[in-house]
Amino acid sequence: MTGGTITNAMRPMHDRSNGLGGGFAGYGIYPEYKDFYALHLFFDSRDTRKRCEAYLKEYFEIVHSERIPTRKIPAIKDEPMIWRFFVAPLSSMLASHQLDEKEFVARTVMHINTQMDGAYVFSSGKNMGAFKAVGFPEDVGVFYKLDEYEGYSWTAHGRYPTNTPGWWGGAHPFTLLDTSVVHNGEISSYDANRRYIEMFGYTCTLQTDTEVITYILDYLLRVQGLTLKEAANVIAAPFWNTIEREPDENARKRYAYLRTVFPSLLVTGPFSIVMGFSGGLMALNDRLKLRSMVVGEKDDKVFIASEEAAIRTMAPDAEKIWAPAGGEPVIVHVKEGAY
Amino acid sequence: MRKINAANLDHRQVNEAIRTSPDSCAIEHCCGQRFIATGMASGDISLYGTPGNALGAYLNGAKLTVYGNAQDAVGDTMNNGAIIIHGNIGDAAGYAMRGGKIYVKGNAGYRAGIHLKEYKEKVPVLLIGGRAGSFLGEYQAGGIIAVLNLASPGGKIVGNFPCTGMHGGKMFLRSDCKDILFPAQVTAQPATEEDLAQLRPYVEEFAAVFSYDAAEILHAPFTVVTPNSQNPYRQMYVAN
After folding, report:
1. Shortest CA distance to B100 belongs to which of B123, B121, B118, B116?
2. Lower CB count within 10 Å: N or C terminus of chain B?
3. Cα(B132)–Cα(A325) distance, rounded to whole angstroms?
4. How big is the CA angle at A110 (ends A104 and A111), to the nearest 5 degrees?
5. Which of B150, B154, B145 has its CA nearest to residue B179?
6. What is the rounded CA–CA span in Å between residue A41 and residue A45?
7. Residues near A235 by Cβ (< 8 Å), separated by ≥ 6?
8. What is the pLDDT along chain A (339 residues), one digit of tens a residue?
9. Looking at the complex, does the CB of residue B31 fall below 8 Å from at least one CB of chain A?
10. Which of residues 88-117 of B touch A (CB under 8 A)?
């Protein structure tokens, strides 16, 4: 699927955003560099870029770097310098730091985002990439020439910031390694979640709540090794009185265990999120379902959106349109070997 | 009947086209345009495709028929008229509705009938042919909500936490509701003949619209939920 399809799906969703942020994540878009981490960065100046590149060279082999191609359009203004680097950590560095590759890359992202003024890593996975800007999403897709990329899964987001600034780094998706999150809503538990997750080496720098969900998911899935469903049961844990009424004893024990072990990672307040990862997507609503979410299917494709109209734009004759319950994760895996 | 192609129109253009039409019109290729037919007092409007959120908000007498699914907040603060949905309906259907009718053939999302209200002869009716999601009739203050579970019987007729904060009106569920947990502030009991007599005209109209047999629909156990005046809300937020 090209990024043009999902860009068009954002057109009828225009009124859901106010032009202060739009973005996309595409998976399977860099097959020629699929073994390298694709770092997407914003720089405020040429000097910052050179400084950052020198830093990267100390720790990584850079196999390719370039400006990310964009179209000049009137709707997108004041863009920073937007670059991508395809990199592999130097094995000597991994050995001396005694870290696995992913942890090493994650720490590099945190270092640049917290220590290097004017530089932001906004995408850091393999064979995937995030593209975001200040603007309406349908314009952002045109700006980044997404019609020229092909991938096996895509996510998109239009922003309507109410509590935090609209800036390039604040547009969704929020990513770390190959995990990306787009989010409709606002998290009441943000600061409790942030204080907890920052104990494990994450630093929230992007001035908006969704970022913390990305780090929570990275922590639960990559660091703690939970399954997708378990991670969903942590961040959208059922109410205790719902757990008590659960007829399946094993499920009841699992819900209670996860709530007890990770109470600080319960995310409250309205959210519907779509998380992208290598090989699939997971969609999840808060347990009260304070935001909308619709799922549809057509042939071998699955569509997830805040409104059915967006699905109908991509697949006018989509079937099995349904609305997942609050806290019920929808997990989609690409067929074996297809990515 | 005038046909309006909504394919490349935004919500304002769609509404202008409706308002300049004679009494009845058909809108084709709807794709997410919000606020369609807002506040309209007359007319008979058919909709094809997927109309957007807040369809028929403040509706004041017009009739809308959707040949497909509807999205969220249909009939928000509706005052009069009728909205007929031949598919499913999204979240918060009939939000704060104060008059008129919404009939849905399929399922409803979360919070259907939230804060339905009534005053004297203004008694709104929300009839759902399939099942309803959680928080059905949340803060219901009046009016009639009925869920029939006709589309795919067997599943739970309503999700979790129905009638939370209910303090007026009446809810009918076509089920014995043995598997449903209601809050302590409401009373759920088998429907009496008198209760069913109140529901019958609406079910008959629903059956005529969607080609069902009303007698068959009504020949089933119904549970009626009303606020429990013996156990009012007290000290929920502040001690008073």
Report:
1. B123
2. C
3. 11
4. 85
5. B154
6. 12
7. A213, A216, A217, A220, A265, A266, A267, A284
8. 999 999 999 999 999 999 999 999 999 999 999 999 999 999 999 999 999 999 999 999 999 999 999 999 999 999 999 999 999 999 999 999 999 999 999 999 999 999 999 999 999 999 999 999 999 999 999 999 999 999 999 999 999 998 888 999 999 999 999 999 999 999 999 999 999 999 999 999 888 889 999 999 999 999 999 999 999 999 999 999 999 999 999 999 999 999 999 999 999 999 999 999 999 999 999 999 999 999 999 999 999 999 999 999 999 999 999 999 999 999 999 987 666
9. yes
10. 88, 90-91, 109-110
Of residues B11, B52, B110, nearest to A307 (C-beta) = B52
Distance CA A86, CA A194 (A): 30
Note the residue count of chain A.
339
Region at B22 (left for phi over 0; alpha for psi -120 to 50; beta for the rest): beta
Closest chain A residue to B179 measured between Cα atoms? A245
Residue type, A313: T
Are the C-beta atoms of residues A209 and A270 closer than 8 Å to each other? no
The pLDDT profile of chain B, 240 residues, written as one tens digit per residue, is: 899 999 999 999 999 999 999 889 999 999 999 999 999 999 999 999 999 999 999 999 999 999 999 999 999 999 999 999 999 999 999 999 999 999 999 999 999 999 999 999 999 999 999 999 999 999 999 999 999 999 877 789 999 999 999 999 999 999 999 999 999 999 999 999 999 999 999 999 999 999 999 999 999 999 999 999 888 777 666 665
**Residue B50, beta-bridge partner list:** B31
What b/e sequence results for A61-79 when a residue is b if at least 16 CB atoms lie within 10 Å of its CB, and e otherwise?
eeeeeeebebeeeeebeee
What ipTM score was computed for the predicted complex, to two decimals?
Answer: 0.93
Q: Which of A68, A63, A77, A73 is CA-nearest to residue A34? A: A63
Q: Do A308 and B135 touch (CB under 8 A)?
A: no
> Nearest-5° angle of CA A140, CA A145, CA A149?
120
Residue-level pLDDT at B153: 73
From the CB of residue A100, how many other CB atoms can be counted at a distance below 10 Å?
12
Rg (CA), chain B: 18
Type of residue at A46: R
Are A327 and A291 in contact, with CB atoms under 8 Å apart?
A: no
If one counts every other C-beta atom within 10 angstroms of the C-beta of residue A228, the result is 19
- This prediction's pTM: 0.94
pLDDT value of residue B232:
78
Residue contact A326–B134, C-beta within 8 A: yes
Comparing CB atoms, the residue among A313, A321, A325 nearest residue B134 is: A325
Q: Are the C-beta atoms of A157 and A137 separated by less than 8 Å? A: yes
Compute the distance between CA of residue B177 and CA of residue A181 in angstroms, rounded to an integer: 39
Report chain A's C-alpha Rg in angstroms.
19
Residue holding tokens 């739970």?
B156
B181 min Cα distance to partner chain A (Å): 10
Judged by a CB distance cut-off of 8 A, whether residue A110 touches chain B is no
Question: Could you give the domains of chain A?
Answer: 3-333 (3.60.20.10)
> Could B32 and A13 be called an inter-chain contact, meaning their C-beta atoms sit closer than 8 Å?
yes
